[in-house]
Amino acid sequence: MDGVTESQVGPPSPFERRREKLFAQLGGGVMVLPAAPTRFRSRDTEYRYRPDSELFYLTGVTEPEAVAVLVGGEEPRFTLFVRPRDPDAEFWAGPRMGVDRALSAFSPDDCHSVKELAQRLASLLDGGDRIFYRTRHGDGVGTFVSAALERARARGPRTGGGPRALVDPGEVLDDMRLIKDEQEIEALRKAVAISIAGQRAGARSLGGGVPERTVEAAVEGAFRREGAAAPGFATIVGSGTNACVLHYVDNEDTVQEGALVLLDAGAEVGLYNGDITRTYPASGHFSEEQRAVYDVVDGARTAAISVAQPGATIADVHAAATVVIVDGLVTLGVLSGDRDDLIEQGVHKAFFPHQTSHWLGLDLHDPGDYTRGGASRVLEPGMVFTVEPGLYFRPELSKGGAARYSGIGVRIEDDVLITADGNEVLTAGLPTAAEDMEAMLAGEE
Phi then psi for 376, rounded to 5 degrees? Predict the structure, then answer.
């Protein structure tokens, strides 16, 4: 770097900072991260390509066929393999990065054509004491990893070297990814903002006689107009009893007058995901029974968020929501008995069967253990997760006191960031209180 001052080099990119953290934990291991495979919808018709989250997290690489090799030790090195330039292929599918551009864009220590993977990967793998690699069919890497382990098994007793174990990359990366850095939080804020725009567009399209697919189109059209790459997951537009199907994605029914519509949708922006659920009255106003159920769920959401603080656990969040849900079911006349006994017996799970939260980030259900050493995970600044209590009165289970609410399904979901002194509700720009929802649907907000 002769002739270049430190000020000219500039600060490291977020990807470089993440690699530094990785190398500090990798020891003498070697991590191999292949690109996600191209997937086909049918025959030779491809799905839109979605890059591998772990590869992107550490490198910023989004092209198919790439392979990153991160070698730990006293002199850690990042070697990148990418597709070579190919005018004929680029005519069909667009420009490729190529080795030269990849060198400047991603700052690897070495960069080669992926066509050289077979001749170069073996020596990189043989230098490690462990290989961090997730077996995945068809990525072009698994055979090389297996061969390296076989060589070490044969030669290791004599040489004392070579990789002796295959380790899931998540053993190192999951905890890293659980704490979001500034760039990730900004990406999530953008994804959430566009997700809110989609929710508002969907709400504006609601009404009796409107097909669920029309609402879906309004949501996803807003995502694209606002700059999202795609929905982060299949949009759920569950009207009436469809709202009682947790992952209803058919969206083929017609919204009936007076029905509730559960809209669960999120935009993917810069590969990061928003995830928001709101439940709207199609007529613009809740019925008495709908409002009663809705208020219980919104109270559970408020209680869960109130305990989402540094030092609390992710189980505390669920427990706070569960208490309000069980108390609400008693007030609604659905359950009777002592709250603690009801929770211990789990009778509420017929109406609230899922957990309150999941981690959120590059993946919709981002990695990270919910328990450590047998105890619930303690919340720390930088963690991002959903808070999404719900009540679902499936007609076949709505007997006795629940019969009055048969067919009602309500879920309310916010995205929450743990901060140094509490939390930030990233989705606060979209109302949840019943009266505010009605005002929004009336155009009064």
Answer: -65, 145
β partners of residue 359: 385
Helices (H) and strands (E) in the chain, counts: 14, 21
3-state class (DSSP) for residue 280: strand
The pLDDT of residue 157 is above 80: no
Over residues 109-128, the mean pLDDT reads 96
Give the C-alpha separation, 410 to 433, whole Å: 13
| Chain-centroid distance, C-alpha 63 | 20
The residues pairing with 76 across neighbouring beta strands, listed in sequence order, are none
Instruction: Look at residue 357 in the predicted model and tell me its pLDDT.
Output: 98
Q: What's the whole-number mean pLDDT along residues 327-337?
A: 98
Please give the Cα distance from 2 to 237 (Å, whole number): 60
Strands (DSSP E) along 332-420, which ranges? 371-372, 375-376, 384-387, 390-392, 409-411, 414-419
Closest C-alpha among 278, 304, 271 to residue 188: 271
β-partners of residue 238 are 262
Average pLDDT of span 427-439: 98
pLDDT for the residue numbered 158: 64
Exposed/middle/buried for residue 110 (C-beta within 10 Å: 0-12, 13-18, 19+): middle
Taking CA atoms, 376 is separated from 190, 292, 318, 371, 413, in Å, by 30, 32, 11, 4, 21
Distance (Å, whole) CA 187 – CA 193:
10
The DSSP code sequence of 75-137 is S-EEEEEEPPP-HHHHHHH----HHHHHHHHH--SEEEEGGGHHHHHHHHHHT-SSEE----T
10 Å CB burial of residue 382 (0-12, 13-18, 19+) is middle
pLDDT at 5: 39
Q: Which residues participate in catalysis according to the annotation?
A: 44, 247, 264, 275, 354, 358, 365, 388, 392, 411, 413
| Cα(245)–Cα(116) distance, integer angstroms | 49
Mean pLDDT of 359-363: 98
* pTM for this prediction: 0.95
CA torsion angle 339 340 344 345 (round to 10): -30
